[in-house]
Amino acid sequence: MPGPMELAVTVSALTCQFGGLLALDDLSLEIPVGQVVGLVGPNGAGKTTLLDVVSGLLRPTTGTVTVFGQDVARRGREVRAQLGVVPQETALYEEVSARQNLRFAAALYDVVDEKARVEAVLAVVGLTARGDDAVRTLSGGMQRRLAIARALLHEPRMLILDEPTLGVDIEARHQIWSHVRKLRGQGKTVLLSTNYLDEAEALCDRVVMLRAGKKVAEDSPRGLLARAGRCVELECAPGEAVEIEKTLVGSPGVLRIETADLGLVAYIEGSSSPEDLVRRAMQVCPLSGFRIRSPDLVEVFRALGRQGGQERGDAP
Fold it and tell me: Does residue 281 share a domain with residue 249?
């Protein structure tokens, strides 16, 4: 029998309120050691607030957070020593070199063998050749990578990344993804927030979807995709789309139907036959074409977010 799963983070009934704003609303979740867990959701969903609470920068109104078995509120200093945090703003000293930035940080962390450690983390993020260049001369992606290097200096057990690829180009984005994957391969735990659902799909073992401070859904990327159903794109004229929608709405296995530029997109249960749906549509009028595919995470969030809002009485 396998032993119990070791947890890096346990969040229990967490609430954070700022005046009339409820940033986190009775939120609970667990993050296993060695996994990459992504927080996704629109701006204002509570992602950064949750990261601030986990890293000990913010005290919750109610609820508890433990990191590697230690209560963050009571043992904040010990907890922070095990964390590497990369905020949205890199907060680097732009007029001095990348190496000098890391040496300053190493002194603050009391890093043993500072020089060797600085060179090691520069190598990890691929910036050895630019180590003596002023930070202001580095691209946005390089500065992000330098911020990750700084967070790794003291060899933390867990890395917290708040929108790690915000504002960087495609090439830099994929380089940062590569570094995150390497950290997971080394057994590091990573908690990241992102507005890019393809990023969560590419990097994360589990995805937590937040909306208005509440957890809408939590699953593996593959599991979330399965919960939203398969997509059947039906190509037809606008007038025909109206008639087809009337026929298909409420049919067994049809989760929902949305209009699209090409005609309609029908979302069906995994056990339903897309071919049957296409045949039913063609009985109404001819189709220009059709395509069967899996939903992307944008569509998953829209679907599950709508369900979560309806359960709470929010406007869909």
Answer: yes
Q: Which residue in this structure is represented by tokens 């200093």?
A: 77
Question: Does 84 share its domain with 180?
Answer: yes
Q: How far apart are the first and last CA of the chain?
A: 44
Q: Specify whether 215 is located in the same domain as 276.
A: no
Check whether 260 has a pLDDT greater than 90: no
In a 3-state reduction of DSSP, which class is residue 264?
strand
What's residue 72's pLDDT?
95
User: How many CA atoms within 13 Å lie on the side-chain side of 21?
Assistant: 7
Domain of residue 277 covers 229-294
| Total Cβ atoms within 10 A of residue 36 | 22
Pair 161, 34 in one domain: yes
pLDDT on residue 315: 32
Residue corresponding to tokens 């937040």: 210
pTM: 0.81
Among residues 208, 223, 238, the one where a domain terminates is 223
How far apart CA 273 and CA 229 sit, in angstroms, is 11
The pLDDT confidence band at residue 189, using thresholds 50, 70 and 90, is very high
What contacts 24+ positions apart, CB below 8 Å, involve 237-241? 237/263, 238/263, 240/284, 240/285
Vertex 273, ends 286 and 265: CA angle to 5°? Answer: 55
Q: How confident is the model at residue 166 (pLDDT cuts 50, 70, 90)?
A: confident
